[in-house]
């Protein structure tokens, strides 16, 4: 088990993940903005919390609200592959943080 795997199974991560989902109103934040091939604008299904800067790249940012975004499975894959650029993800995160 890698340090990333250990982190992903930690209580701190589970709690932070729920906080971010709550901040993002339990919706994919790419779908709600109708971006990048959205099928359904109000998407509550298959959600995960994406690290804009990957854990492996900067472990210190792993729990930072300004590095986390709720996304559906399709958009998570697109974020991970770079199809959705970091700048777009970061702009949406900043918008979500401003609403708080």
What this model shows, in words?
This protein is mainly alpha-helical. It has one domain (3-99). Helix content is 42%, strand content 10%. It is built from four helices and two strands; from the N terminus they run ααββαα. The protein has helices at residues 3-8, 11-23, 73-81, 86-99, and strands at 47-51, 68-72. The chain has a two-stranded antiparallel sheet with strand order 1-2. The mean pLDDT is 95.
Q: How far is the first residue's CA from the last residue's CA? A: 35 Å
Report the radius of gyration as a whole number of Å.
13 Å
Number of helices: 4
Regarding quaternary structure, what we see is single chain
**Tally of DSSP β-strands:** 2
Can you describe this structure in just a few lines?
This protein has one domain (3-99). 42% of the residues lie in helices and 10% in strands. The protein has four helices and two strands.
Task: Sum up the structure in keywords.
4 helices; mainly alpha; two-stranded antiparallel sheet; 10% strand; 100 residues; 42% helix
Itemize the secondary structure elements and their pairings.
Elements (H helix, E strand, L loop, with lengths): L2 H6 L2 H13 L23 E5 L16 E5 H9 L4 H14 L1
Antiparallel strand pairs: 1-2
